[in-house]
Amino acid sequence: MNLLKKVKGIIFLIRPDISIAVGMCVLVGEILALGNIPTIKEALLGFFTAFFISASAMIVNDFFDLEVDKINAPHRPLPMKILSKNELILLAIVTTLTGFITAAFLGLIPLGVSVVIWLIGFLYNYKLKETGLPGNMMVSTTVAGTFIFGGSAVGAPLKGILLTFSAMAFLFNLGSEIAMDAMDVEGDVKRKISTLAIVFGKNIALIISSVLYIGFILISFIPYAMGWVDQNYLIIVSLIDIGLLYFVGRLLKSKTASEGRKRVRQLYYLVIFLLIAFIIGVIQI
User: What is the CATH number of the domain that holds 181?
Assistant: First the structure.
């Protein structure tokens, strides 16, 4: 039973939904850079690099957030003592090294990009989370970097469409980070984190978050306007954007922290659906 609890704890720690979504961002980055389907090697190595680097960041986050999680999320494996600090350190080392090894098989540039992304994530978790907005921007930079990594994995990291998707990812994740901070004020006060919600209030933070989501929606039409994608993309992204507007409205009206977190998760699921639809669309072509 203890072993089963530890396995469940590990699965919870690595946030499979988020880590898989990060891996899909890399796949989309590869597709965007190539304008076609990547090789199986490029696809698998790119996906697993992103998955394990993301998993490592999630584990490190829980390690440094122990005191805050005792208030904000006492159900997590570390506060509940399902896993020990030493076990978390071991997991972080294993996932990090696995991510670097898979990146190395793609080449030196992808390895370098993955190391930079990992370093930003580690520094954020270690110390810079307390900076509030700058810390939020660091996390969003790592998310935006997944598309650049995907491009580097196939030898074309700086194409216009890649940079557009990176900007979309940055705005969306920054909006989500600010919204989640608005739901975690009590614990963040304990850790003395100067989030926008603490400095300006929850309502202002949610308004700023909503503006960033709207920025994502506006930028999402650039690929079609530039002729980089066809009408199928326009149809899919239009439906997703309508859903985003709906859940952003619900987020602004959320009464409790748990309801607000639920709305942010729903927003993430919509974007994951967009990534899946994009990948399936390219594969069918």
Answer: 1.10.357.140
Measured distance CA(283)–CA(76) in Å, rounded: 38
Angle at 275 between CA 269 and CA 279, to 5 degrees: 145
pLDDT band, residue 80 (cuts 50/70/90) = low
* Residue numbers of the domain that contains 36: 2-284
pTM of the model: 0.83
Tally DSSP H helices, then E strands, for the chain: 14, 0
CB atoms within 10 A of CB 207: 15
Furthest CA-CA distance within the chain: 56
Question: Cα–chain-centroid distance for residue 252?
Answer: 21
Virtual torsion, Cα 256, 193, 145, 47, nearest 10 deg = -60
* CA distance linking residue 18 with residue 260, whole number of Å: 18
Q: Return d(Cα 192, Cα 215) in angstroms, integer.
A: 29
Domain count for the chain = 1
Residue-wise pLDDT tens digits, 152-179: 999 887 888 899 999 999 999 999 989 8
Q: What is the pLDDT of residue 74?
A: 64
pLDDT, tens digit, 9 for 90 and up, residues 190-209: 667 778 888 888 889 899 99
| CA atoms in the 13 A half-sphere facing the CB of 104 | 6
CA distance 96 to 115: 9
